[in-house]
Specification:
The chain has a domain of about 80 residues. It is about 30% helix and about 30% strand. The protein contains 4 helices and 8 strands; from the N terminus they run ααβββββββααβ. With about 140 residues, the protein is α+β, with helices and mostly antiparallel strands. A 6-stranded antiparallel β-sheet has the order 3-2-1-4-5-6, with no helix packed on it. A two-stranded parallel sheet has the order 7-8. A hairpin with a 5-residue loop joins strand 4 and strand 5. It is extended. The termini are far apart. Keywords: Membrane, Transmembrane, Transmembrane helix.
């Protein structure tokens, strides 16, 4: 194999390795995921409960109005919802609401906020104030 071909092959492997590293490596920034959860808005109907691990139902498939179906994590709240219930999660709220088929509304936690994030200087002041008042039940003691 010629020297030029060998150099080209090594360069191609280096570029492929760098691209693979960038896809696999993601720094652990817990704040990012929690804030994204709060910012999302979901309106729809619960289509089915989903077990992403064997026999452990933690997710629901939401049939959203005028949008594609969405799989969302509900964790322990999964037992509080049923297939056919209407699901509503407002933007910038850590809660979701379920309109039961019996016409009763349930308010449940969509996301919990650890105190370490609440005390972080980058955490929104508006949300910090809400955590001390209206959102008090979603703050987790660490």
């Amino acid at each position: 194999m010629g020297r030029k071909k060998l150099l080209y092959l090594i360069s191609a492997f280096a570029v492929a390795g760098l691209i693979l590293f960038l896809f696999i490596y993601s720094p652990k920034n817990e704040n990012k995921f929690i804030l994204a959860d709060i910012k999302v808005e979901i309106k729809g109907k619960i289509k089915k409960k989903v077990a992403v691990r064997k026999n452990l139902f933690t997710h629901t498939l939401i049939s959203r109005f005028n949008k594609t179906d969405t799989l969302i994590f509900l964790g322990e709240s999964i037992d509080s919802v049923n297939v056919g219930d209407n699901f509503l999660k407002y933007k910038d709220s850590p809660f979701f609401y379920v309109l039961k088929q019996e016409k009763k509304v349930k308010k449940l936690k969509y996301v919990s906020i650890p105190k370490s994030i609440l005390t972080d200087e980058n955490f929104s002041k508006e949300w910090k104030d809400s955590c001390k008042t209206a959102w008090r039940s979603v703050v987790v003691d660490n």
